[in-house]
């Protein structure tokens, strides 16, 4: 599809993959010139350049060699010096005036030449109309009225026979929301266009280049000469070129539609293609660059208006749903169990997402209210959700996803489901019944291709009505967010906390978070000052160290050592506080492999040490690999540190299967500790040995305990002075969620 052709027999599958950004030619109502940024040497040009502009540009020749191009060269130099992204102005070249536009690309400066605007079509002349548009939409009610004002203004600006505005749904289907016409072309108001009419790559190009004009559907493209760029050997990328030639399939589509000219303005909301404004005329029609710029400005204003109004609508909808959720949670919290609370407030439960039926599935079974499938059918749905690992599912047609659900589509076509457990098949579910309705299309959506062994753009745009079944009203983003919020509320206020301790636990959790945040902030902010102290002390020693007496050098060394020690303490505090802020990412961990890696990383600290390692079989564990690595590093580091002086030091590492848990023990023959003080070992800043004897910050074992606690395991220690110490920690065999994340429901 790279060749420039108007062959009406076109392969739509190939068209879907057609490189429309590099068509190899431009529309012939203008001309194109590609110049090098340095020296303005001619790199490429459209074959009609001389005929349109009179410029006899030759590849490799500087544009300045052409006397008639002097004004263009001067304008390009001013533009590049100013650093503007786009050049747009009227310029006289030779005996004629042209509308010049230019932009930078990796393949050179792309300069386009088009017929100039008349005095009535300049931006100055168009500004009052834009002002009236702003005044009109400020008083408009809703997106539909804003859209109608927009199409009316676009048609007044461009003179097209018909201008329509349509928006896209999640499947790419376009629905005409507003239309303004003079009766020459048929009306498409409220009709739908299938997503297949605009391939995915074309949608992406609409996001990149907001305006596209086709003055005539019967043009013969002007080829780019040479076809490959001298810069990179690739076809010229015309993504941002106003004159870019369009797909031959689209031209055939226009002719089938009965339009001789078209223009589109993209409507982007939050960076995505929300919709298009499309103008059509039966006869060819050119819209100059000044008017197109005005339409682009109007389109951007419209995009902002739509985004603001939709956001306001979503906010109002979300607030209304939040009121329902708040009322329901208040009643659920006062009930004996959350299931009783839901069952006793069925209407509120359904209204959380505006559903006709609701259900909750736990180990105790199915609780359903309103219009729902049977209990057995609900359990089958939950099994499908679990098998497909869907934490959240929002379908307006379950039958389209799971055909076996079609048998009860009349009762439940729409499903909104959300998981409330990481370990069990526990779900909150809402259902909506089938909504039988008639949808009107501009042509039959299922028949875009005609007879024959070649494929064609669809030829019919006549009204075609489709009766839609097995589909409910779609779930809105606000309703999905409401379901998620309700899930969080159930977990936070009912399931995670015993009712009698809910308020106390909430306060403790908040205080703990504040303390962690404070610890993190202080530790993070102190790292740099201590590093500066060490750095400047070392610089001072290097610079005047030989001029200091022994006492002064001792003072300087003490400063360095104290700052290094404080820095290590700050780093450990930062690690400790970060541990509370990060989430667990449990997976299957090979402890034997991890043990080898940790020992290898400790290599520099073990040089010259007589250590006898006794490592037994270590069963695998279900844990966060990074956190368990930290546990092993801290325990092994302690074993090596506190067995210093032993010849040899004996360090034993063993694992043991204990049914529901796996235990791991790390022991040494070092200095040991008094068992009477073992309860202090895992506290922050707790030491059983003087810091002068063994360096450390007193945080390592506290960090170890915190990691094990978060995994739902246990850790204990045994030791005797002079006889060594052993630490044993256990980990559950199956995933268990941490206390401040997802958790089991029972």
TrEMBL record:
Catalytic activity: ATP + protein L-histidine = ADP + protein N-phospho-L-histidine
Highest taxon listed in the record's lineage: Bacteria
EC id: 2.7.13.3
Pfam families the UniProt entry points to: GAF, HATPase_c, HisKA, PAS_2, PHY
UniProt xrefs under InterPro entries: BphY/WalK/GraS-like, GAF, GAF-like_dom_sf, HATPase_C_sf, HATPase_dom, His_kinase_dom, HisK_dim/P_dom, HisK_dim/P_sf
SMART domains: GAF, HATPase_c, HisKA
Region (Disordered) location: 715-746
Coiled coil: none
UniProt similarity note: In the N-terminal section; belongs to the phytochrome family.
Entry protein name: histidine kinase
Taxonomic lineage: Bacteria, Pseudomonadati, Pseudomonadota, Alphaproteobacteria, Caulobacterales
């Amino acid at each position: 599809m790279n060749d420039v052709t108007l062959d009406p027999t076109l392969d739509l599958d190939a068209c879907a993959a057609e490189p429309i950004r590099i068509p190899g030619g431009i529309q012939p109502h203008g001309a194109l010139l590609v110049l090098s940024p340095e020296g303005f040497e001619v790199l490429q040009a459209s074959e009609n350049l001389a005929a349109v502009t009179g410029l006899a540009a030759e590849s490799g020749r500087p544009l300045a060699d052409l006397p008639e191009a002097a004004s263009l060269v001067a304008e390009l130099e001013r533009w590049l010096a100013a650093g503007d992204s786009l050049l747009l102005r009227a310029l006289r070249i030779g005996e004629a005036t042209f509308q010049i536009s230019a932009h930078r690309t990796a393949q050179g400066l792309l300069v386009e030449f088009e017929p100039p605007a008349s005095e009535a079509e300049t931006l100055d002349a168009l500004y009052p109309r834009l002002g009236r548009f702003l005044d009109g939409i400020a008083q408009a009610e809703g997106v539909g009225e804003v859209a109608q004002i927009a199409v009316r203004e676009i048609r007044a600006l461009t003179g097209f026979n018909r201008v329509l505005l349509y928006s896209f749904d999640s499947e790419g289907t376009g629905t005409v929301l507003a239309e303004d016409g003079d009766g020459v072309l048929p009306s498409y108001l409220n009709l739908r266009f299938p997503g297949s009419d605009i391939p995915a790559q074309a949608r992406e190009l609409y996001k990149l280049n907001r305006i596209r004009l086709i003055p005539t559907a019967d043009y013969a493209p002007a080829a780019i000469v040479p076809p490959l760029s001298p810069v990179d050997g690739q076809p010229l990328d015309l993504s941002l070129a106003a004159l870019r030639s369009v797909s031959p399939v689209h031209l055939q589509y226009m002719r089938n539609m009965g339009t001789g000219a078209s223009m589109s303005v993209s409507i982007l909301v939050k960076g995505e293609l929300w919709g298009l404004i499309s103008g059509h005329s039966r006869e060819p029609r050119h819209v100059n660059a000044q008017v197109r710029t005005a339409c682009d400005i109007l389109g951007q204003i419209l995009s902002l208006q739509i985004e603001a109004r939709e956001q306001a609508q979503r906010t109002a909808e979300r607030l209304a749903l939040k009121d329902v959720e708040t009322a329901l949670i208040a009643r659920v919290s006062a009930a004996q169990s959350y299931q009783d609370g839901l069952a006793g407030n069925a209407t509120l439960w359904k209204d959380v997402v505006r559903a006709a039926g609701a259900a909750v599935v736990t180990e105790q079974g199915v609780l359903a209210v309103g219009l729902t499938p049977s209990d057995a059918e609900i359990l089958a749905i939950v099994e499908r959700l679990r098998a497909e690992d869907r934490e959240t599912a929002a379908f307006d047609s379950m039958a389209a996803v799971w055909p076996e659900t079609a048998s009860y589509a009349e009762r439940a076509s729409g499903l909104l489901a959300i998981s409330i457990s990481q370990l069990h098949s526990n779900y909150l579910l809402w259902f909506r019944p089938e909504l039988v309705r008639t949808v009107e299309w501009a042509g039959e959506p299922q028949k875009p291709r005609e007879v024959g062994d070649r494929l064609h753009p669809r030829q019919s745009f006549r009204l075609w009505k489709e009766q839609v079944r097995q589909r409910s009203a779609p779930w809105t983003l606000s309703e999905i967010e409401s379901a998620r919020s309700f899930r969080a509320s159930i977990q936070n206020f009912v399931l995670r906390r015993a009712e009698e301790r809910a308020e106390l636990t909430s306060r403790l959790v908040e205080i703990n978070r504040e303390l962690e945040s404070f610890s993190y902030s202080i530790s993070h902010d102190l790292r740099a000052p201590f590093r500066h102290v060490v750095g400047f002390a070392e610089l001072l020693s290097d610079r005047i160290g030989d001029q200091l007496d022994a006492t002064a050098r001792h003072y300087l060394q003490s400063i360095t050592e104290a700052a290094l020690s404080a820095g290590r303490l700050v780093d450990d505090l930062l690690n400790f506080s970060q541990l509370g802020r990060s989430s667990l990412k449990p997976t299957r961990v090979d402890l034997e492999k991890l043990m080898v890696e940790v020992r290898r990383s400790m290599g520099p600290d073990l040089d010259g040490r007589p250590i006898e390692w006794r490592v037994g079989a270590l069963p695998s564990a279900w844990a966060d690999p990074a956190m368990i690595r930290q546990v092993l590093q801290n325990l092994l580091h302690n074993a090596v540190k506190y067995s210093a002086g032993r010849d040899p030091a004996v360090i034993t590492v063993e694992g043991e299967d204990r049914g529901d848990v796996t235990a791991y023990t790390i022991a040494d023959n070092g200095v040991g500790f008094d068992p009477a003080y073992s309860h202090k070992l895992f506290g922050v800043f707790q030491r059983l040995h003087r810091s002068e004897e063994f360096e450390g910050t007193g945080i390592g074992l506290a960090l170890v305990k915190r990691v094990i606690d978060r995994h739902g395991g246990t850790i204990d220690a045994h030791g005797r002075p002079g006889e060594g110490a052993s630490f044993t920690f256990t980990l559950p065999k199956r995933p268990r969620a941490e206390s401040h994340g997802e958790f089991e429901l029972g």
